[in-house]
Amino acid sequence: MSDRIEKRIELKAPVSRVWRALTDYREFGAWFRVELTGPFEPGKEAVGRITHPGYEHVTWRAVVQRMEPERLFSLTWHPYAIEPGVDYSAEPQTLIEFRLEPSGEGTMLTLTESGFDGIPADRRAEAFRMNDNGWAQQMENIRLHVEANPNEAGDGG
Asked: In sequence order, what are the beta bridge partners of 103?
């Protein structure tokens, strides 16, 4: 098993549009299926309720690390932390990076989640497998979102 997940997708949308879909908390929530309580801010925890069927009991938590406009958006979180009543706070977090690059008429979006080697051994393989599958779906979700809503406006943060 690797320490990192990497997914790449070419989106038929300009970098500015993809950036907005990633960093406007309402848009992020729409394609990621999480109802966030407020905007993303570097150094602050983003919190919300998962709206994906079967996971509505999960509170989504991630700490925004970096927001380099139209280049890099990164977060840390506890991967696959879905068991009710389990305190994951003592576990190391993984780093999620969304990198954007112009690509022809659109955007190449590269997602990397790294740090699985630090996850406790009894959870590591399942967290990796579930997130690997989950990111494949989320990359398709963002593609559908930006291509179906090419002009959707947001506040950028």
From this structure: 106
Which pTM was predicted? 0.93
What is the length of the chain? 157
Kindly report, residue by residue over 45-96, the tens digit of the pLDDT.
999 999 999 999 999 999 999 999 999 999 999 999 998 889 999 999 999 9
Nearest Cα neighbor of 40 from 80, 18, 73 is 73
Q: Is residue 156 part of a domain?
A: no
Name the burial class of residue 114, with classes exposed (0-12), middle (13-18) and buried (19+) by CB atoms within 10 angstroms of its CB: middle
What distance in Å separates the CA atoms of residue 52 and residue 13, rounded to the nearest whole number?
Answer: 25
What CATH code is carried by the domain that includes residue 72? 3.30.530.20
In a domain, 153, yes or no: no
Q: Which of 153, 92, 97, 140 is nearest to 117 (CA)?
A: 92
Number of domain units in the chain: 1
- Strand order of the sheet with strand 45-50? 4-11, 106-114, 94-103, 72-77, 59-68, 45-50, 34-36
Domain span at residue 138? 4-148
